[in-house]
Amino acid sequence: MKIIYWKKIGLIFFVFLCYYLSLPAQLNPKDSIQWLIDSTEHKSYEFQYNSSRRALLLAEQINLVEFQAKALIKIATSQSFIGEHVHSLENFTKAKDLIDLHRLDDLKKSFYLKKSGVLVRTKNYEAAIAHNEKAVQWFSAVRDTVNLGLSYGNIGAVYYLQRDFDTALNYYEKALAILETTSKKDDNMILANLAGLYLTNEQPRKAIPMLERFLEQSKKENSNIHMVSTMTNLGLAYGLIENYQKSFKYYNSALELAKKEKLVDAQYEALRMMSYTYEIKGDYQEAFEAYRNYKEIQEEVVGKKTQKEIAELNLKYETIQNEKELAINKEKVIQLEQEAKIRNQQYLLFTALFLAFGAVGISFFLKRRADFEKDKQLYAAEQELMNSELKNKALAEKRLQEQLEYKNKDLTNLTLDITRKNEFSNQLLSQINELEKLVSKNAQSKINAIKFFITDNLRINKELAVFQKNIDEINQDFYNRLLVRFPGLTSKETELCGLIKLGRTNKEIAALKNISLNSAKMNRYRLRKKLNLETEIDIVNFLREI
Description:
mainly alpha
């Protein structure tokens, strides 16, 4: 009777779910589950996750193993994009167990390709290589040439990310050779990655035909972002072989399309590469103009990133508040445990005393036992709640750490950009000084004006203001603690402490403060003396512990 009852409940649940999701009435259960898995392809990853979870519940209810495995693969993929990497890998393992147990070979292609992307996104490179090597063995055994080539390309991508360019080049060339033998054209990204490797290894002549081929395919697919990036790389490649007419033709086409489609990142990357090519050509005036335009767009992008970082800091503040609430709840749990312990002691005492009173004592014992069970259940529930909150706290801390690492990397890149800009300006100033010796006195005033503009540009950097604002926001609590412990520090010494705490080197600090390297070293030495640090104490670790 119970089995029939639950089957009825399951059927009612299925009918309700179909109505709720507005599924067509003529769909059978398999079609309905497949619809839940496939119909969310262009939705948000959270929506894909929720829809795939519904599909999994339905597949489990009517014991459709193949659809359970499909749903698990979709769930795992969507989880990786919303940051739940541990759960993602767990669900991939469950899907693999079902595939192996029930010999669902048709799903191995999806499993191998989807899990490869997750392992790369989580930077688990060794596991990604091992996984794709198994994929190579499988696709080779079943003679799936297309996915065999893609798997070789995935291995090449992992080695590329590890900066092992020679090994990456070997796998990319192997992948391209295999894919060129197939009727399907799935070699687009392989072409782009292989061309990028040739450019990295300063082999532009090998890169050009691949880039032009990839550009034609991108045009057919109407992929604007790929078209812009490929034309930018063609501009760089032709510039490296000193075919400047074609080089700047591709650069201008890339900029025109990027402006039209509002691809800001692609636009300032094209300007950066164009500035570099003008510098190779020796046209420093055009190089400076392209670099100036690049910096203007980059500053706009950095400003938007700064707003995002402020939002992340607000999230950090909210997390700290939640941690405080968690600590309060933990104290309450400890108090409840102590109260429960006292009640247990009282229970034992009263039980021993009232056993002698016969029926009255037994009645009291039973009542106390019921109270004890309630306390135990309450404690178990509170303990489960506390464990759940601790897990959430650990996850939140991990996400905050990843966000701070990303922010620190962005600030490091900004430091390198500032240094390169100053080196470029100094080089340009040197060229103008040489030119000044060759021109007439009538042109001296104009040359002096250009020299003053460049010198002034060396002193004033808008991005320094943005950088300093970021530093102050990150280190505000640290500054307060530092001044409590060392009230005699000046504002400049406090800012220097913040930069050292973030791991900035003397060279980077010199670039950011527009001072010499020796001055930066001397400032660090004076700061150590003011902090009363012994020689063997590392100042970075000392500041991070404050």
